[in-house]
User: Which sequence fits this backbone?
């Protein structure tokens, strides 16, 4: 009698653990699929912002001309929209940066 009770408890415990394992694997597979979808969306070439070029205004050297000058806050980590019109200023041809169109 004791053996059959212990056997039944053991079988029940085994089924519970196996069921939990199957559920865990299904959730992991769903998460992996979602992660793959996110990577594909980020890598898609149809998304993104068009970029243009503007000149960084120079203080003392370069050429004076009407140009599209970048926002003064433009840095390596932050770009701003391209200017809608040109303005008179001092620039170097080698001092270009990106702006968003």
Assistant:
């Amino acid at each position: 009698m004791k053996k059959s009770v212990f056997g039944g408890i053991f079988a029940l415990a085994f089924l519970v653990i196996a069921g939990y394992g199957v559920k865990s694997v299904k959730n992991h597979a769903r998460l992996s699929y979602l992660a793959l979808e996110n990577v594909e969306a980020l890598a898609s070439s149809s998304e993104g912002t068009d970029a243009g070029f503007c000149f960084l205004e120079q203080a003392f050297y370069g050429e004076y001309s009407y140009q599209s000058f970048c926002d003064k806050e433009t840095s390596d980590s932050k770009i701003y929209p391209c200017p809608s019109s040109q303005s008179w200023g001092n620039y170097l041809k080698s001092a270009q940066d990106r702006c968003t169109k």
Q: What stands out?
A: The longest helix spans residues 2-43.
